[in-house]
Amino acid sequence: MATETRGRMTAMPVISAKRMQDRIDAIVEAATAVFGAKGYEAASIAEIARAAEISDGLIYRYFSNKRDLLYRVLEAFYERVVAALEKEAANGATFEDRLHALIRRHLGNFVADRELCRLFLSEVRVASDYKGSAIQNLNRRYVSVLTALIEAGIGQGEVKADASPRLVRNVIFGAIEHIAWPYVNGDGKLDVDETAKAVTALIYGGIGIPAKT
Amino acid sequence: MATETRGRMTAMPVISAKRMQDRIDAIVEAATAVFGAKGYEAASIAEIARAAEISDGLIYRYFSNKRDLLYRVLEAFYERVVAALEKEAANGATFEDRLHALIRRHLGNFVADRELCRLFLSEVRVASDYKGSAIQNLNRRYVSVLTALIEAGIGQGEVKADASPRLVRNVIFGAIEHIAWPYVNGDGKLDVDETAKAVTALIYGGIGIPAKT
Question: Would you call A202 an interface residue with chain B, using a CB distance cutoff of 8 Å?
Fold first, then answer.
């Protein structure tokens, strides 16, 4: 990415790579706030420029359009949550604990970043340009944390040997999205603790091998 | 609805209620085929009129615009699948059999009516006019078939007493949508039989009380 950005910049006044990255970060941060507060449709490049305290023209040096900016906002968001999830998956003494921690964290993301989750689900994932995008790759990395956890659980005899990690992963992420969507879309509440416990119990009941006491 | 349609028609030449309904049905059928073949964006009222062998103007007597027509197409589709699901839920000797039949039918809908499912998931359910629509009501009726099945299972001692019918329902529908979406969106295959068996085994493993033999 650095090379590509530098390529675009050849005709521009020379600024340091550090200063360029700071600007990009400031724009993405401002765009995150504006999209988060107003939604994608209502947000404008002019408003994002004002929030970042730079000119509209400077935004167009780094981003082609509003959609490009949305993708970069969601990439930055996804990078944060993937890192957090990867860390979380290492915690917990038993498979059941680790599964619970992961489900709880995933649900918690919908509450902590409701508008970004809404943008991802309603604007990006159903769009034709999602396939092959950097966000899809980050999504793959995100869900692979759960696949790896289930595979390890099978390896350590804590999960039934015939459980399909891919299927279980789809069931969990699909279920949680479905449960979180009304909340993300502005309707109703989402009790993270209670829901995480109930989903974990259901899934663990279906695939887990309780430890002998 | 009949009254409303009649109200709209007061200034029009008098035709029988039966003939009016036949026309509406023909338009909805043509729109289903055109949306199904071309998607929502690319479809035009003119094309739907040609397919229904009537004039564009006649469509506008019954429908305000393309979006109105999309909602009516999906309503007709949903009415069909709700009726089929309600029938299906009565089959099967045990709770596990009935659960399997219902999951299989739900998955099968995504294969049988791929484009209509895609339109529902990508155009309608994430849209702001979904809430309170007739389609949302049909969706509620559809998912309530599964809630009722789980409640009956608890009542008959085939499902754990502490299972939450609402949660289990959300987990199942969320999971299946998540699994079906790549296929519905034109990517990959969907093995209905295999997936239905695996999802049923997972859910039944989590909530079921096996019969004593």
Answer: yes
